[in-house]
Amino acid sequence: MKEREKPVHGDDNPKPREVKRRLKSTKRISRRKRLEFEEVELPLQVAIIGGGVAGMEAASVLTEHRCPVILFEARPELGVNVKNKYKIFPDFSDAGRLVETMTKAMDHPLITVNKDTEIVEIIREPDAYTLLDNKGVPHTVPAVLLASGYEPFDAKRKEELGFGIYEGVINSLQLEDMLREHKVLNSLGEDPRRIVFLQCVGSRDEKVGNHYCSKICCITAVKQAIEVKRQLPDTEVYVFYMDLRLWGQGYEELYREAQEQYSVRFVRGRISEAASTFDGRVQIKSEDTLLGQPLKMVTDLLVLMIGMEASPGTQKLGKTCGLEGPYGFVRSKSPHLEDNLSDKPGFFLAGTCKRPMHIAEAVNDGRAAALEIIKYLRK
Amino acid sequence: MADFGFSISKPQSIDTNDMDVGRLQALEAKVPSFKRCINCGACTATCSAGQFGGFNIRRIHNLYRWDQRKGLEKELQQCMLCGKCTLVCPRGVNLRYLIIRLRKALADNK
Amino acid sequence: MSSNFHPFVLPFTIGTLALFSVLILKYNKWISKFDRQQKKLIRRNLFTGKLIPAVWEMINEGLFHKKVSRYNRRLGYMHRSIALGWFLLISVGFVETVFHFQGRGHAPWIGVFFRFFVRDNQTLSAWIFAQIMDLLLLYILSGVTMAVFKSIFSKTVGMRKTTRLKLFDTSLRYSLWSIFPLRLLSESATAALADNGGFLTQSLGNLMGERFAGVVELPLWTLYSIALGLFLCLLPFSRFSHIFTELMLIYFRKMGLREREKPTGFTRFELSACSRCGICIDNCPLDSELNITDIQPVYLIRDIRNRMPHRNATENCLMCNRCESDCPVGIQISEIRRQERDKKKLDTHDNYGYIEDVQSFNAIGRVIYFGGCMSHLTPGITESMKKIFDTVGQKYWMMDEERTICCGRPLLQQGFFNQAAELRRKNTQLIMESRSKTLVTSCPICYQSFRKEYNLPIKVVHHTEYIVTMLRLGKLRLNRSELRLAYHDPCELGRGCGIYDEPREVLSALGQLLKLEQEYKNSLCCGYNLGNTVLELDQQLKVRDASLRNLTDSHPDVIATACPLCKKAFQHSTTQPIKDVAELVVENLR
Amino acid sequence: MTTKKHYWNEYQKEIADDKYFYERSCIRQTFFPGSETAFLRILKEELGKDILDVENQHTCTGIGFYSDIVPLETTMTIVARLFSLMTEAGYENYVPSCVTSFGVFSEIVDLWEHQPDMLEKARKILFETTGRTFELPKNIAHPSDIIYKFREELKEKMRYRLVNRFTGRPLKVVEHIGCHYAKIFPDKGVGKAEFPHVLAGMIESWGGEVVDYPERRHCCGFGFRQYVVRANRGYSVANSKKKFESMQPYEPDFIVTNCPGCTMFMDKWQYTIAEMEHKTYDKKGYGIPVLTYEEMAGLLLGYDPWELGLQLHQVQSERLLDKLGIHYDPNEKYKSVSGRILPNPEKPQYLRV
Question: Residue D341 has what DSSP assignment?
Fold first, then answer.
């Protein structure tokens, strides 16, 4: 992060009043809005980078405390990563509806949403931050919340699994789309006779440099396996895993249900190669490690449970702000009591820009960050 | 000896009390990444020699972990050292070197 | 004082006699240890035209040090000034002596100590000779000065590192360095007394003054003789034996001798021909990326010569051959390293009973496609090759579609000679039984193996060669775009088999090939080379990162390579597209 | 340790005070009859109890029953007849000498309690075949329970303690409980199945030290079917071996058991292992003596070792007797009831005697 010795607007040490004046000059809040909220307690504006579930939840909470928010989202839509899912574990509720509810809350007089807007540079001022967006517009705010999120792992990097080479090899997001359309089909457009899930693609893999566990894939595979069986009861479903980590409330029960009610077969072994068969299906090679016997299996679909990596935005901003943590994620001040804080006052963190999280966790984290910001601004 | 018409059955269980931990430690010192194995089976699944049946590198090194060395030397000779196992290992275990060192250790300590 | 003998010439004379007798004995012993094939080659080629190019190369390398100069001009100058200068000094000295005595008999050492023995010669020709000799001496001294500097500041001669030496070598080096200053001083002293010096010695002599020169003349000549004698005596036991051995080696090589699976007398020549110039250190990625500094060829050769190679030096090497490609003597270091890796007891027989029942396939009219073990992990390559075969209408038999019998090279590289031969035997049988005429392979390791280790009577091509042929025949037509491509030369394909241009020709036909800082024979290993078993993953990744930096520096759209291992190595680290030449061809088919 | 030591206190079973009906054991009568004789003598002479030992008794079918050879109905009828003997004699407390019998009786009584129709069936069959009737016993106790109950009274009368005369230290005793004693019905054993205290209590009261070794709860290896089929005997002996290897480092002075099978196999398999693998489990090659609890009690009470029948065991006990300080006459060892000195038995090749 650039430390600006001389502030853009002249004064060396601007007093809070001066900051406020400057804020007015940036004109991010319309006059009408300010009139409407004359009783505003915290007239200072908070910039939120990233309009995912964490960012949106933080914005909602901040406005509840009458704090104006300016939200930046690099993509044309809010909440895309969650919206890309169909149903979410463990209760199979609708991901689209969840995002819809959250997006609706963004339609608030105190929230300014800038879509298609990427923050390219963050300059640290005394007591404030100036964010430069890709259109060249500067935004000066007293507090910033980084919620720039994650990106799904690109399975092409594991070429041996044939993603992007064989049509029968898909990733877990593509399966979500198929499930939403109720069109889980093999590469020939037929109902698949067999579907194989493979865990830990891009996670827990030193070869691609990701030593960490992405945490959500185990339960996602269990959930997707159940959904597949609900839509296609005659399809055989196998899940190949290295370890099953079903740690959340209701997860173990879902696993049990998948085994008992849906006859999903769980195999302890990693798949190391995929090849095509003459009839356009996929042949995989693995080992049943509990038996100590290598095995081959032909399947219609091989679903790669791709892990979470820091999004390009997270990686870039983490680097420019000097908050770069392991694997390109950003680093919080401490993992217990100061997890929403960075070592820069006024610069806060929330959600999957820090590490893999599931939806509820990211939402909670956004909420917690908002409260930290309010605490900071009141000081 | 009197003929009893039967012999004492060998126990199925591995007596870990009899095992020489030093042997494993020596191997681990040579190939530190060996300790990181999580037994995912990727090596065995991809193994060129394993495709012909019979050879299971994961099983072999697990047996060595428990100092069960009988027959391993002969079994390991089936490896073609092609290196696929090393390439797919998610924990970055240097399996090719492990195999060479293991073969040496087994040959040295008969 | 123009007698023909003085006792101080004894050290030199003894040294010379010792040098040549030891060399003759040694060479004789080594030649007797050539294996049958090597001896046959010598008998067949001893008196053929091969002698002329051999002598030409001897002059180029032994005197002019062309290869060293090509690698590094200053280093070349240093070697050349000493070698060529000394050679000329001896030759001109000989001519001078012959000229002076005009056919009258003279002792053989006169040429070396000419100024001492021939003092009262004031002819014009003597004056000219004196000037020439001084000039040569100056030339040598400039080289010696550089060498002294190099030992202190290696950068003087443009090297990052210099070879670390043992006590024996160090003392020998000092005696070499002292020869020429001593010669200068003794000639100067004589010049002061006899007025027979050239521009250098005479002026230095005049500076000394007659009285001082009278005192130091004899001691200086004695020291000079001792330094020479000592150096010549010790030379055959030291790295300086390379001066003579290199000439022999050049000759043997011209006769077609190469390293064999096991060490032979030829290996002794190769080992002895290493001058320890240290170029190999500069080229070694283990040195530059991992700071591993005791395994480079120069140290390995030293250790083998001293009969105490340590395991680390033999095992910890990527076998990327970057060192060999710049070795001024052209020592086959990877082959020598492999000999040292001989696993002896571990290299067992009858290991692969399970491959015996693998059946061949009638592939008359088809090419054999051998993907190789690794290509099973890069389906992008094999699928593209299948598509290419289909496009050109070539029927093929993918020999290792279901199960692969390894080519054997990974075993060979680790010193399992019998085991490798066992696999080669079975693969040869399968290939011969198929009665196909061409073998196409995607893996450069297999390619090198099939080409050099198999002795197959059919055509063996790498898939880049195959694609080039198809392009030239017009059977494949590509769309050219502005795609910016950086091509990574795989070690085994480039330096290993000399395939540099074929992949580049293909890539140039479909995009814009970028120039890289390190390419062709200087290409950097991707770190995954199977030649090394010792490196741990994190170390391999460091080597890879350096190689990748070289590729990404020019901001290519796609990094292209022609080896499944290199592809995997880069793929693991970056989301940037890494593609095999074959994949790019399929993507850009017209 | 504390937990382990006192766990048995949590369960004490009910053991009748007096008026016992004694039922003999097939194996014990055959292989070490001195034990049963000693038990009757202890109860009658030392404790002054009323114990009845009738002549017309028979097997309980235990070995056949647990080997799945004898059907349930047969066993029920057999049990019913034995109970009818007790009822006929006017006793209510049943004392089966054999641990397996103890298991059979407990199991059948439990079955009858849960399925009264089976009891009726048994009564009917018994009556139809023999004309006999029976009542269920009020109390079923194993003889080891009774000795355990009166261990303190017996201690008063004992001439010896379980103490090594040479060192003054307590003898190290391995106790082994028959599986059918408490593993079928934990409630029927003193201290239940995991920490049975019936033998340990005697050893501790009489001055010895119980060896708590890792394989303490492991089966002796008899295993009924494992032994009955010759091809399976390898499994049987392997189990005993496992126990011996586990107890060996503690250097026990002897083993005491309350089950006929255990006594026999832990004793005889030592010979087998010695002959097959040349391995014995004491330092000097004699093996570890295996005693019944009656023999242990009898020795301490000062009964003659040869009358107790110690010479009938495979592992000989002279060295143990020396440690206890018990005097014996080596010449009397092989004297028959009629007073004739029998020839010495053939010696094993490897096991020292």
Answer: B
